[in-house]
Each structure stands twice: as structure tokens, then as C-alpha cells.
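S1.2 Input.
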Amino acid sequence: MGFKRLLASLGAGGASVETELTETNVVPGGVVQGEVRIQGGSVDQRIEGLSVGLQARVEVEGGEHEHQQDIEFTKVRLGGAFEAKAGAVHVVPFGLEIPWETPVTAVAGQPLRGMHIGVTTELEIARALDSGDLDPVHVHPLPAQQAILDAFLQLGFRFKSADLEKGHIRGTRQRLPFYQEIEFYPPSQYRGLNEVELSFVADDRAMDVVLEMDKKPGLFSERSDSYRSFEVGFHDFQGTDWAAYLNQWLAEVGGRRNWFWPATP
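S1.3 Output.
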């Protein structure tokens, strides 16, 4: 019997774990609901701990090369130790809060290319950890975030890609060890512009919106005025014409160098 328990702790004949999400569509600041189902193995086992969290795949710069790293950025322990009886099913419901800074992974119902975020489940048996598969979640924009995204589309920008970068954006309310960049192709009238990068850094009342223009080579060397950061409140964002606001900033930066014709929102 002792030998069987040892095998169980190593995975042979041991308990298996499966996580089922009640709803995979969430927003920053929301809650993802689900349950963890633990199927007992061929012997009784003591479960030392059970937890769920959120994990993101992040780009990490290292010298001349980049590599990807999976970072767990929130984690919740589900109760204490318990006994998983042989052959029995143990169900543990949970509600996992989505941090306000969680990156957007879907816009207008369509997934953003390059985003990999999901719920992880970790089972601790006899001081050994067993991590389950990643259960994807779809993080949709908050209304204020959607307003900024809509403004770019109204100006004729097209979505290019999105990624997560390890590091911090100075001067923002960022707490997570990474940030999101959403990249847009400009419309033809912005002849000197290669792309615009957009980042949201949110908390429970407002968000920092960070914009950076990536110019085409040879147009100008300074980068200070190709970067802009401003705050958008979650309760008063509807009072601003964001397409006009963005177009004005783009016109100010590019117009001083006469390298594009600004759009009319």
C-alpha cells in the first residue's frame, strides 16, 4: 500500500485534475468563475494544496535576442489540505478576480493575434506540484478602452498585432511586471508613419493611455515628441471626442516636420 501511495504521488494511479470555466469572456476588473474537479486515483491521497491563477506569455529582451516567458500574475489558494478518496470526485468552485491591468485579448469578438492568457491550476500532492493545462480566457476591453480603440478605427488605422513586453512603462500606474502593446498600421494619408503602438495601464478608477509613433527611417531623429501619455477616467471618458483628440496630437507631431497629411475624423 505504501508503494502504491508513492506511485500516486509521482503521477502513476494518482488523482487527476480538470478545470472548467463557467464563462471564458471577461473584462479587466471582473471575475472568472469556474470549478476544479479532482478525480481520485487508485488510492487515497492527501492534497496539500490547490490553487488557480492567471498566466500570460510575455516577450523578454535578452541582448540581441528575445525569448518568451510564461508569467503567472495573479494566484488564489482554494482552501486548505484535504483527502482525495480513491475513485471519488471532489469539486471545488472558485471565483478568480481579473486584475485591472490584465491585457485585452479580444476586440469586437475577435481574438488579438499574439495574446496567450489563461487560467492555470496547480495541485500540490506530497510536496510535489502538478500544473494542469492552460484554460484560455477572452479579456474584452472596458468601455473606456473600447472608446480609444474605436477612435483609431475611425481615423482609418488597422490592427497589426499585439504582444506583451516584460518591463515597466515609466510614469504610469503599472504594477504588473509586463505591459501590452497594441500596434496599428496607419492609413495612407499618414505617409511618414510606420505604425502606432498603444498601451493601456488601468486601475479601478482610470487608466493611463500610452501612445508611441514609430516613424519611417530618415524622417526625424528625435523621439521625445513621438510619445504621449494621458489619463482617461472610467466615468467621464464619454465627454471627449477621442478621434479628434488623437488626430490633433498626430497632426501636431507630424505637422511640425511636414511628413504627413492628417486625417479628418
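S1.4 Remarks. Residues 186 and 225 are 18 Å apart (CA to CA).
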